[in-house]
Design goal:
Homooctamer. This protein is α/β, with parallel strands linked by helices. The chain contains 11 helices and 12 strands. It has a single domain, classed as Aldolase class I (TIM Barrel, Alpha-Beta Barrel), CATH 3.20.20. Helix content is 38%, strand content 17%. The chain is globular, with a radius of gyration of 20 Å. The N and C termini lie far apart (41 Å).
Amino acid sequence: MEITIRPRRLRTDPVRRALVRETRINKSALILPLFIREGKGIQEDIPSLEGQKRYSPDLLPYALETVIKAGIKNILLFGIPLTKDGVGSGAYAENGVVQQAVRAAKKNFPEISVITDVCLCEYTDHGHCGLLKGDTVDNDATLPLLAQTALSHVEAGADIVAPSDMMDGRVNVIRQVLDRAGFTDKAIMSYAVKYASAFYGPFREAAGSAPAFGDRKSYQMDYHNGREAVKEAGLDIAEGADILMVKPALSYLDVVSDLKARFHLPLAAYSVSGEYAMIKAAARAGLIDEAAMVCETAASVFRAGADILITYYALEIAQFIDEGRIG
């Protein structure tokens, strides 16, 4: 039988290409990280993250006007306190920097979904994610403080708390504390799979959270490991996580795909500061088309199986969706 090879006509027209597109992206799946610095009247550039800024809580609503106008309805807040101590007390202070920012955001834009990072590294004078016992992070002693931090965020009005510390058992403790306080409707987005990655450098400068000594390999994951990701995600689900996260994104798309195939919770991927900085640097050097690279990398994350993308490029991606370049 003779077979006639016909042209793939759907490729010739952009409208028809979009009609059969397998991976679709919309603004509701984007989360924009924001850095909040304690004080007043602060709006400053972040040298390590070109195009990103730190805001004080009183100026956060000004920044959110642009976010809302772009169609982004989800933000993830990271706090930078004025003072730090050995127990990270600024993380769970009633009037801490994140707590102030949450109140300001929800007062001015009640429709926005406010997610808060729950960790101690930005608040401890040693820069580690938990309390220390000698030179070692004390996992169990850290758990109550993480739960106290999450509770203070929710009491301020946060919609979702996102523990990023990687302490064993923290999702369980946070869930119990929130439930006992009557916040059974508040969700936990767990950094279930957070690798000890070289891609975090620009963030640590932006948030002032680099460890004063050693590293975080004892509680973050070895990037050689894939099966461990499945184990960690399963444990967090059992403890009460509502959303799973993989961090970083681009170097771990295989992990995103694996978790999507195995579990049925919403799955987020965090395109981290190093990924953002690399694209910015290459674009500045004239080596790439920045917009095209942003669209392609974002699509790859969703194609791998992510339902949610946390990205410093959220505003730009929203614009590209409006322009029909992606989505």
